[in-house]
Amino acid sequence: MKRLSEQQTKVLFEKLSKYIGTNVKLLIDRSDGTYCFREMKSRVYYMSEKILKLAETVPKEHMVSVGTCFGKFTKGNKFILHITALTYLAPYAQYKIWLKPAAEQQFLYGNNVAKSGMGRITENTPVYQGVIVMSMSDVPLGFGVAAKSTNDCKLADPLVTVCFHQADIGEYIRSEENLI
């Protein structure tokens, strides 16, 4: 486990701020202790400093993962957010889209969200903003990027895409070997 470089930290925080804005600092300084991000094999893990100290006693060749995998860096030094980060991002999300029950399954199969499947959207959501996709019963289903702003959604045709799919909890089944 190694510390993120300054460039990697900047890229990671920019990606996280697309979804949770300035609440990124709340991920680090929590009431239950201080948390940190560490990299191992181009994957970024989120863990408490207590777990980090315990993990340092394990040899690198025996460690598979530690903490929660937030995503990975590509060879071009871009950060791809994994669905495993959803439980940490959802409480701090600035913008959300709620899906009607009939549209949930389509989203969980990896499809974009059409306006006909959208139940509600957070006020003043800008276009191309990262959003957390929720069910009508406030269960986080995944995250995506708003294809239309809140005002554009009100006037849009029912078949227009309002949210581009990024990741969903169906990936736990579809891509379980790639999530660690």
From TrEMBL:
Coarse class of the primary localization is nucleus
The cellular location(s) given in this protein's UniProt record come to:
Nucleus, Nucleolus
Its domain of life?
A: Eukaryota
Keywords, A to Z, come to: Nucleus, Ribosome biogenesis, RNA-binding
Q: Name one GO cellular component term.
A: nucleolus
- Keyword field contains Metal-binding: no
Keyword Mitochondrion in the entry? The reply is: no
Domain PUA: residue ranges: 95-170
InterPro entries under this entry? NIP7_N, Nip7_N_euk, PUA, PUA-like_sf, PUA_sf, Ribosomal_synth_fac_NIP7, UPF0113_PUA
> Recorded GO terms, molecular function?
RNA binding
Role, per record: Required for proper 34S pre-rRNA processing and 60S ribosome subunit assembly.
Q: How does it assemble?
A: Interacts with pre-ribosome complex.
* Protein name in the entry: 60S ribosome subunit biogenesis protein NIP7 homolog
